[in-house]
Amino acid sequence: MNKRHLTAIVALGAAASLTLAGCASGNQAEGGSGENGDSLGTITLGFLPSWTDGLSTAYLLEDQLEKIGYTVEMQELTEAGPLYAGLAQGDVDIYPSAWPELTHKTYMDEYGDQIEDLGAYYDNAKLTIAVPEYVDITSIEDLAANADRFGGQIYGIEPGAGLTAQTQDSMIPEYELDGTYELITSSTAAMLTELDTAIAAERDIVVTSWRPFWANEQYGLKDLEDPRGAMGDAEALHFLATAGFEEEYPEAAELIGKIMLDDEQYAALEDMVVNEYGEGKESEAITAWLEEYGTQVDGLITD
């Protein structure tokens, strides 16, 4: 097993064991200060550590908000539902990597009236069904005739994830895989462990995945074609805030609303935070990323 893969999996496994009861994490920032030396206020970022898009952007926002004078608290959760509920109730101020257009639409239908959209920061996110590159099928349509090769199992992530619902409620029935495949859900860490084991043995395996996600490149995954569009179209990733946030924290809202990342910038951010630096060194990863990419992104503070 690649050492960087193992480090990431262990980190994800530890994160997945956290529950909502673990409110603010041990990474609470001391915070910056305004012109008079006082904090402009405390902002709580809620994110799911096992979903590394949000992990990466949470630490980027922590860095930026501290630099303009806010105190930042990092609150780790394990499911999207409680995170949206916390955002709507004001227990969390910002969800730093939401999928509100398609993947999390059901949560937005329920809580959207109590949530503010601070803007999209990436516009090419996609849910996928993937296999290792050595697997000789190219389309989801090929799965039905090859159930025995995959043991009739598709390895997924958390039960409450939008990706899980899209796979179970849309993809499986659309491609008539009911009865021949079972969607195995547990956690992102568990899915990656299964993937790592299968690849080490060059065994056939099919997993739920998404883009951007560092594991696609690290594990050499290829997306299966989706001719029926069952996994949905590409969508944007957004910074969401609790209602009233922009009025209460105008400087923060203005900074956050300017951030827009392209494919290269986003891939580098996630890879540095998750793999190159890893757990406990997220701030160092953000500093390194800002040195390389900060001046390319409007509004970011690089020193």
Question: How are the elements arranged and paired?
Answer:
Blueprint: H1 3-16, E1 42-47, H2 52-67, E2 71-76, H3 80-89, E3 94-98, H4 105-111, E4 115-132, E5 153-155, H5 162-174, E6 182-184, H6 188-200, E7 207-211, H7 214-218, E8 221-223, E9 235-242, H8 245-248, H9 250-257, H10 263-277, H11 282-293
Parallel strand pairs: 1-2, 5-6
Antiparallel strand pairs: 3-9, 4-7, 4-8, 4-9
Helix pairs in contact: 1-6, 2-10, 2-11, 10-11
Helix content: 25-40%
Radius of gyration: 19 Å
**Average of pLDDT:** 89
One letter per element, helices H and strands E, the order comes to: HEHEHEHEEHEHEHEEHHHH
Task: Quickly count the helices.
Answer: 11
The largest sheet, given as strand count, sense and whether it forms a barrel, is:
5 strands, antiparallel
Quote the distance from N terminus to C terminus. Answer: 37 Å
Structural class: alpha/beta
- Unreliable spans: 1-33
The total of beta strands comes to 9
Portion of residues in beta strands equals 15-25%
Q: What is the 3D form?
A: globular
Structural description of this entry:
The two termini are 37 Å apart. Strands 3, 4, 7, 8 and 9 form a 5-stranded antiparallel sheet that branches. This protein has a two-stranded parallel ribbon with strand order 1-2. A two-stranded parallel ribbon has the order 5-6. It has helices at residues 3-16, 52-67, 80-89, 105-111, 162-174, 188-200, 214-218, 245-248, 250-257, 263-277, 282-293, and strands spanning 42-47, 71-76, 94-98, 115-132, 153-155, 182-184, 207-211, 221-223, 235-242. The chain is 39% helix and 19% strand. The longest helix is centred in the first third of the chain and has 16 residues, at 52-67. The protein is built from 11 helices and 9 strands. It is an alpha/beta fold and 303 residues long.
